[in-house]
Specification:
With 350 residues, the protein is of the alpha/beta class. The chain has 10 helices and 19 strands. The chain has 2 domains: 5-112, Roll (CBS-domain); 122-348, Spore Coat Polysaccharide Biosynthesis Protein SpsA, Chain A (Alpha-Beta Complex), CATH 3.90.550.10. Pfam families: CBS, NTP_transferase.
Length: 350
């Protein structure tokens, strides 16, 4: 995505929410924190996700989450050297500053490097019945329902392709011929698609056991086929690899207000009363990265849910990470979700 670096600038007093808006609008994956044109720090996607995991609110000032000692370059540094440094330091962008720390510009990895395909495969689960969306799903599998003029599954594949993913596997069960006829081998969409078919429902992870072991040499993205999202899938993979997890689950913050007064007590005595409190927690967003050894644990033809698969990994002391998403995300599971997707799609740039 092309952008003007000036559009990435916020002040130290700006909120984390305002920085998020900048990240999503520009697609730059970095926000520059400036005062009087002097660089105070930078905020990346990763900085915000770490602050969310630490319980930091979106209304906090961006100065509390920024990196106040970022890597910077002078304007005399050649672009080739900037590209070498970004690859060496594994950073996506480097601000350009003067000798007195005046902000002059921004180098980005996307700008300096040529685009390339990502070898890691993507597994999309598209076999569900979509019973809560009947009668829409009587003759159409849920991932093939049209949102914004094209099937949800097509929107998902094209977004993944935009981030460099070109090797796809799709699991089918209900009305598989509808999916096959639309996508074929993927050539018309500029990707490669192979299929695995569940003769009977195998749970939310069981279809992984049907994959040819030849395709299990790199960490694999696993995504539910009925999700509409603006997540940066490449950043998800980078997060997984950088943290050396066996598996990573995308999570989303969920709020629930208890409609009663909540009482805390001890030995029959009330200690506190909180009227209609709001509880916050992280919930599963239906997107994962799994290392080959995790997928190997799925026995061909055996029923297993993703939560059980990951719980087994944790019991075996294998690292399972969580990637908090702040981008748009919608699981199209109910009729009101489907209607919301129709109204949201136009403003999302998907």
């Amino acid at each position: 995505m092309s952008f003007n670096w000036v559009d990435t600038v916020v002040t130290p007093e700006s909120s984390v929410q305002q920085a998020l808006v900048k990240l999503n609008q520009t697609g730059s994956r970095i926000v520059l924190v400036c005062q009087n044109n002097r660089l105070h720090g930078v905020v990346t996607d990763g900085d915000i996700r770490r602050s969310l995991l630490a319980g930091q609110g979106l209304d906090a000032p961006v100065s509390q989450v920024m990196n106040d000692k970022p890597l910077t370059l002078g304007k005399q540094v050649p672009r080739s050297e900037a590209l070498r440094l970004m690859r060496e330091k594994q950073v996506l962008a480097i601000p350009i500053v003067s000798d007195v720390n005046e902000l002059l510009g921004l180098y980005t990895l996307a700008e300096l490097s040529t685009s390339k395909s990502i070898d890691n495969p993507v597994f999309i689960m598209a076999g569900g019945f979509g019973t809560r969306l009947r009668p829409l799903t009587n003759i159409t599998p849920k991932p093939m329902l049209n949102v914004g003029g094209k099937p949800v599954l097509e929107t998902l594949i094209l977004r993944l392709k935009r981030h460099g993913f070109v090797n796809f596997h799709i699991s089918t069960h209900y009305l598989p011929e509808v999916i096959h006829q639309h996508f074929g081998d993927g050539q018309q969409f500029g990707v490669s698609i192979q299929y695995v078919h569940e003769e009977s429902p195998l749970g939310t992870a069981g279809a992984l056991g049907l994959l040819d072991p030849e395709h299990l040499k790199l960490p694999m993205l696993v995504v539910n086929g009925d999700i509409l999202t603006a997540i940066d899938f490449e950043r998800l993979l980078e997060f997984h690899l950088q943290n050396n997890f066996a598996a990573t689950m995308c999570v989303r913050e969920y709020e629930h207000q208890i409609p009663y007064g909540v009482i805390q007590g001890e030995q029959g005595r009330i200690c506190s009363i909180e009227e209609k409190p709001t509880q916050r927690c992280f919930v599963n967003a239906g997107m994962y990265v799994l290392n080959p050894e995790v997928i190997d644990a799925c026995v061909s033809g055996a029923h297993i849910d993703m939560t059980d698969l990951l719980a087994t990994q944790m019991q075996n002391q294998q690292g399972v990470g969580m990637f908090p998403i702040h981008e748009y995300w919608l699981d199209i599971g109910r009729m009101d979700d489907f209607q919301r997707a129709q109204s949201d799609i136009e403003s999302l740039g998907l």
